[in-house]
Amino acid sequence: MESTKKLLFCIFIPVVAVLIIISIILMILFVPVKGKPNDSEYWSEYDKFDINNYDSIEVEGDNFKILQLTDLHYHLPHMTKDTDNVVKTLVKENNPDMIVITGDSVNGPTNLIYSQHVAELMDSFDIPWAIVYGNHDDEGKADKFWMGEKYEDAKNCLYHNGPYNIGGTGNYVVNLTKDGKPFYSLIMMDSNRVTYYKGIEEFGSFTPSQVSWYEWIVKGLEASGYDKSMMFFHVPFPEYSDAYNEWENSGFDNNMGAGSKNEDVCSSTYNPGMFNKILEMKNTTHTFVGHDHVNDYSIKYKDVILTYGLKSSRQFYYQEDMIGGTLITIKSDSNVSIENKFVEL
Ligand SMILES: [Fe+2]
Fold first, then answer.
1. How remote is the CA of residue 114 from the centroid of ligand 1, in Å?
2. CATH number for the domain including 81?
3. Judgement on whether residues 175 and 121 belong to the same structural domain of the protein
4. Which of 5, 30, 66, 300 is placed for a possible disulfide with 328 were both Cys, Cβ 3.0 to 4.6 Å?
5. How far, in Å, from the CA of 269 to the mean position of ligand 1?
6. Same domain, 43 and 154
7. In angstroms, what CA-CA distances link 169 with 123, 166, 200?
8. Residue 5 CA to ligand 1 centre (angstroms)
9. Are 8 and 50 contained in the same domain?
10. How far is the CA of 296 from the centre of ligand 1 (A)?
11. Are residues 304 and 331 in the same domain?
């Protein structure tokens, strides 16, 4: 009897202890953490547009420099320092006025930890920064609203969770003023994680409601004196592929584009018509995306310049000579230059 008790003590208790520890680890890693949508942010096309509802930055000097970072993919502890160094080097060497991150900043179960790391790192540069979501950001423990609350709380971050009823999280606008007058608008959008089209799961795309929201936003911006905008989102729309085909057919005309395509354009075959809406509205001059890590081309297609940002880390798949950021300079005459800034560490 005594030996049975001893056996129980020696086997049962350690087994239970191990099971409890495993359960706690699984809970920490996988039980979802959810933020809350703001109930007041229900959007309707009949809403009155008020320019004062959007953040603005006054441009100092002649040029406004935006550093686009994309696909940082923070998720592995041993790679964190390397990615931090790429970002720090880019900021130090280019001295941007603002940073915009176009999605896939984090991925995997540790997104809760790394989204806070991204916020702390970006805040450390003491310049405004904005962020949109990619298709991988919310595949871990934290959902977009939860991460969004952390970004909203960050000192220098202009992210806004935005209306929750149009598709995506983090559709918002940042305006640039010069001498106190409207200069340029930066439209940030969530291109969504996946799209279900004809019963098949595909890469993310905008929803029809997001296209309507974009139209409403642009009409409001124009009525407020902003006649130029650029858009930042993650998954390219299918016209990124059409643009490349047209550039290829031109014999890679230098006046039309630059950069390279080393993988397919991974967009959804479902097309809600965002690019056509951009053409119709004649306000957005440029779009900037990430997603396809080894494409970095920038092509003028039907009066809009479609650009892939340079991948900004060695996490997930990448090409060693294609790591860095994209420097977007808006000059005082509203002309825009786009340069790839490579980082070799
Ligand atoms: Fe990515």
1. 15
2. 3.60.21.10
3. yes
4. 66
5. 19
6. yes
7. 21, 9, 22
8. 55
9. no
10. 13
11. yes
100-118: pLDDT as tens digits: 999 999 999 999 999 999 9
62 and 95, same domain (yes or no):
yes
- Band (pLDDT 50/70/90 cuts) for residue 15 is confident
Residue 17 banded pLDDT, cuts 50, 70, 90:
confident
Looking at the 3D structure of the chain, how many domains does it have?
2
Rounded to an integer, what distance in angstroms lies between the CA atom of residue 273 and that of residue 15?
Answer: 57
What is the DSSP secondary structure assignment for residue 51, as one 8-state letter?
Answer: G
State the distance from the centre of ligand 1 to the C-alpha of 220, rounded, in angstroms.
Answer: 32
Whether residue 54 sits in one domain with residue 10? no
**Rg, C-alpha atoms of the chain:** 22
State how far the Cα of 33 lies from the Cα of 305, in Å rounded to an integer: 38
Q: Report CA(130)–ligand 1 centroid distance (Å).
A: 17
Domain limits at 158? 35-342
Read off the pLDDT band of 29 (50, 70, 90).
low
* Arithmetic mean of pLDDT, 242-250: 98
Ligand 1 mean position to 228 CA, how many Å? 28
CA of 235 to the centre of ligand 1 (A): 9
Asked if 5 and 119 sit in the same domain, the reply is no
Ligand 1 centroid to Cα of residue 60, in Å, is 33
User: Same structural domain for residues 294 and 314?
Assistant: yes
Q: Which residues contact 92 (CB under 8 A, 6 or more apart)?
A: none
| 3-state SS class at 252 | coil
- Cα 270 to averaged position of ligand 1 atoms, centre (Å): 20
Q: Report the helix count and the strand count for the chain, using DSSP H and E.
A: 7, 15
